[in-house]
Amino acid sequence: MPEITRIVKLKIGLPLDTARKTISAWTVACNTVSQIAFENGCLSNAVRLHALGYGAARAAGLSAQVAQSCIRHVASKYAAARSNKHVITAPAQFRAQAVILQGGSRGRDVALRASGLSVWTIAGRLKAVPFAGPPDLADKLANWTFGDGRLIVAGKNVFLTLSFKKDVEDRIGPNDAVIGVDRGINVLACATDGKRHWMRKGGHTKHMRNRYLSIRSSLQRRKAERRTRSVAKVLKRLSGREARFMKAVNHEVSKSIVSFADRAGCPVIAIEELDGIRGQRLRKKVRREVQKWAYGQLAFFIRYKAETHGMTVIEVDPKGTSKGCSRCGHTESANRNRHEFKCRGCGHRLHSDLNAAHNIRLRGILARQVLGQDGEPSCSPQVRLYDPAGNRGRGRTSRLLKQTAHDMGLSCFMHRGDYCQSQTRASALPRKTSHAAFQR
Ligand SMILES: [Zn+2]
User: Helix-strand-coil percent breakdown of the chain, rounded to 5?
Assistant: First the structure.
C-alpha cells in the first residue's frame, strides 16, 4: 500500500512585513547553524548538531520547536551532500526561501482552525489568520494526515504550503484492464479500454495556441526593432496567461481520463513516452517547446490523479503507434490519412487517434506481462481471441481460432463483451501462477 503526498497551497492574510522578517530570521539561523556544522566536521547528525547549534538558533529569534526544525533542516542538507559524495569545502548556504513549520500531531507551529490559521511568526504566535485554499482542502483535512508547512513570500503575497499524506490501496484488475491514452493536437487526448472510448477534441486549444503564438511573434518582432520595457512586460504577462490556460485544460483532460479509467474498471493507464510525441510537423522551435511542455504536464497530471485512485501509469514505446493497425499489426504510413485510419493490410477502419490509443493500450498490456515475468514466471500466456464475426465463442470461426490457440499451447478464451477470467487450460497449472498471482 503506497503512501502518497500532496501539497496544498494556501494564500494567507499574514502581514507581508511579518512574513519577510520571519523568513529572514529563519535564514540567518540556518546559516549560523550551518557554519557551526561545517566547523565541526560537517555534522549531519541532528542530535549532535542540536547540542552545538540550539543556542545560536534560539538567539536568532526562533521558538524552541522552530529551532529544532532549523537544525534538522541543516543536518539533512549535509547528510544529502555526503550521500551524494559531494566534497564540502565551504559551509552550506541557505537562501531566504521558506520557513519550515511543524504541523499535525507532532508540531504546534501551524494549525488550521475554524476561526482561521494559527501560525508561529517571529512576532509571536498569530491566531485567526484568514486563509484561502483549494476546494478539496476540507477533504484533505478530514481524511489525510497533515504533515508540515512552509511559509513562502511570492511577490506581495504570503503563502503557506501544507503537505498531506495518505495510504492508498493499490487497485488490482485483470491483466488486460488497461486503458491506452493517445495525446495529440487535433484530438488532445483519446482513451480506450478496448471497447469503449473517450475523446477530447483540440480545436479550441489549437485555436488559442495559434492566437498566442501570433501575438507573441508580432511582439517579439517589435521587441527586436526597439528594445522597450513595455513589450517585454506584455510578453511576460502573455506567457503567464498561456501557461494558465494550458494548465486548466490539462487538469480537465487528465481528470476525464482518470475518471474514464475508473468507470471502465481499469487500474492501469498506458501513455506514450514523452520524447515520442508525434504530430504535425512543427513550424517553429518555440512552438515545439510549448507543446513538449504541455504534453509533459498532461502526463504529470494524469500520473498525479491516477495515484490518488490507486492506479498505475506506464509509459510505452511510442514508435509507430499511429501507423500500425491495431487489429492486424500491419504498419505502413499510407494506413493513415489525417484522422482517418484505413489498414492496407486488413481493411480495418477507424479514427486514427483511436487506433493509436488501441496500440498504446496493447503495448501497455504487453509491458505488464514483461513486468510479471520478472517476478513469478507465467507458465502459459493467455490470449483473448477476437472473432470478427462476433460469434461469441460458438460457430466455425471460433472453433478454428480455439483449435489454433490450443495447438500453439496457449490457453484461450473468447471475447464476450465483458472481462472473463476463465482459463481453459489453467486447471492443469499450479494455482500460484494463476491470473491474480502475477498482478502484484
Ligand atoms: Zn490491419
Answer: 45, 20, 30
Cα of 181 from ligand 1 centre, angstroms? 20
Q: Dmax of the chain from CA atoms?
A: 88
Going along the chain from its start, the domains and CATH numbers come out as: 3-167 (no CATH), 178-203+241-369 (3.30.420.140), 376-439 (no CATH)
pLDDT in tens, 114-151: 778 888 888 888 888 888 888 888 888 888 888 888 99
Give residue for cell 511542455: 293
Ligand 1 centre to CA of 349 (Å) is: 8
Contact 189, 199 (CB under 8 A): yes
Q: How far is C-alpha 279 from the chain's CA centre?
A: 22
Distance CA 202, CA 300 (A): 19
CA of 405 to the centre of ligand 1 (A): 20
Please write the tens of the pLDDT for every residue from 272-308: 886 544 444 444 544 555 566 688 889 999 999 998 8
C-alpha cell, 27: 535564514
Report CA dihedral (55, 59, 61, 63) to the nearest 10 degrees: 20
| CA of residue 353 to ligand 1 center, whole Å | 15
How far does residue 278's CA lie from ligand 1's centre (Å)?
21
CA 253 to CA 247: how far, in whole Å? 10
Taking alpha carbons only, the member of 364, 371, 398, 373 closest to residue 384 is 398
Beta-bridge partners for 338: none
Give the Cα separation of 432 and 440 in Å (integer).
12
How many angstroms separate the alpha carbon of residue 187 from the centre of ligand 1? 22
Amino acid at 235: L
Cα of 192 vs centre of ligand 1, distance in Å, is 18
Ligand 1 mean position, distance from CA 315 (Å): 24
Instruction: Give the C-alpha separation, 297 to 203, whole Å.
Output: 19
